[in-house]
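stage 2 :: seqdesign
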């Protein structure tokens, strides 16, 4: 009766007593007693290899490049997460990072814009604030949809102690703070008349909010980079769908006193 070891070896096609692993492209025609050969009718040519097996065993160049990028992303993000906990290298800066986090949070932006809209007494201000509210809500929805589709978990070194979150915020791709920072930054620079030093401050705020996401350990770098791109692109959508008394009279009627 064959021993379990010798039957395993026979299944692997090994004749020298050693198990060898070959990718499908390296294999020659199946060994006479291999399972694939046994399934073929007598005299038939070797069956083509199933495509999904080839893809698993021979990752494409793009696949290798992507996995390498993700590995670098995880490694670098962990190293940059210097405020991820009180005991981290820059743990003493964590409270300041958390204040920066709140400055880019959805709630203060939504409530502030809503309050401004209720208080505004010029139609120009109402138009800008109504569009800012639309931009912030669109951003929330888009980030929630992408997070729900991608479902990338937050970095393992993240401590989930964030100020008010919604269910999809357990996922990290993309960073909602980074999308909001890029979107608000473009919006403010385009629609608020600001002196140059203030314009520089707005850009710096957006950059600091974004960098702080990785430093707090909330995100990997790719979450933040994609978030910035998404926020930048969403502003284009807001401009395209710009709400005005001419295009959305019913909405403006709601806010006119
Ligand atoms: C006030 C108005 C007009 C509407 C409120 C609508 C609403 C449901 C708001 C929810 C806001 C909220 C809880 C946003 C979550 C923000 C957050 C924690 C994002 C996560 O950011 P990330 O950078 O860690 O991905």
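stage 2 :: out
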């Amino acid at each position: 009766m064959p021993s379990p070891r010798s039957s395993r070896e026979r299944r692997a096609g090994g004749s020298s007593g050693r198990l060898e692993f070959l990718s499908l492209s390296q294999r020659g025609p199946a060994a006479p007693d291999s399972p694939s050969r046994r399934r073929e009718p007598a005299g038939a040519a070797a069956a083509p290899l199933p495509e999904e097996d080839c893809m698993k065993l021979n990752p494409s160049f793009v696949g290798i490049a992507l996995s390498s990028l993700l590995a670098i992303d995880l490694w670098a993000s962990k190293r940059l997460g210097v405020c991820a906990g009180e005991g981290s290298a820059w743990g003493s800066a964590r409270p300041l990072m958390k204040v920066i986090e709140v400055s880019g949070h959805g709630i203060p932006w939504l409530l502030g814009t809503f309050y401004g809209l209720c208080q505004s007494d010029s139609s120009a201000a109402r138009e800008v604030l109504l569009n800012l509210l639309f931009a912030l809500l669109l951003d929330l929805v888009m980030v929630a949809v992408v997070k729900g589709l991608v479902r990338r978990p937050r970095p393992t070194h993240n401590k989930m102690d964030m100020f008010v979150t919604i269910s999809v915020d357990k996922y990290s791709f993309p960073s909602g703070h980074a999308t909001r920072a890029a979107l608000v930054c473009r919006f403010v620079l385009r629609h608020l008349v600001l002196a140059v030093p203030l314009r520089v401050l707005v850009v710096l705020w957006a950059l600091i909010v974004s960098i702080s996401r990785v430093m707090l350990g909330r995100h990997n770098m790719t979450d933040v980079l994609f978030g910035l791109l998404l926020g930048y692109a969403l502003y284009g959508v807001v401009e395209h769908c710009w709400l005005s008394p001419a295009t959305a009279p019913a909405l403006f009627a709601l806010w006119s006193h």
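stage 3 :: structure notes
- The pocket of L4R3MLFD is lined by residues 105-107, 110-111, 114, 162, 164-166, 169, 175-177, 213, 218 (CB under 6 Å).
- The CA atoms of residues 189 and 199 lie 7 Å apart.
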